[in-house]
What we know:
CATH architecture of the largest domain: 3-Layer(aba) Sandwich
Low-confidence stretches: none
Oligomer: single chain
CATH topology of the largest domain: Aminopeptidase
Amino acid sequence: MEHEKAGVCIPVLTVRGNPVAAQLLRVCGRIMFGLKTAYDQTFAKYGPGQLLTARVIRYGIEHGMEALDLMAGNAGYKADWARQFLPHHELLLFAPSLAGRYAYWATHGIQEQVKKVPGMIRLARWVRTQRA
Length: 132
């Protein structure tokens, strides 16, 4: 992993020369942003993503990095590395075109309209509990 002021880094964890985990990191100044982690499911019980994260943290400390931001979402594995979560905000932009309007309504607009129907939120929660 080569330190840069800004760029993309892809550290890979290997076993006997075969990749078993990789991360996509965005490095900006002295902060590393963990965009994605992937690992070979056959090694899942060994926690290859966690092992790689430990190495990335060690690398960051050795090279004067201030933080590894694992980005939005409070996934359980992130709690292994920090006591608290930083707030993140998501900004979605849709093109002012027919395709952009369709994308918005297909992903968000219909949901917002359905929420306005009396009892619909309660029904959705009930359906979710039935699936579990």
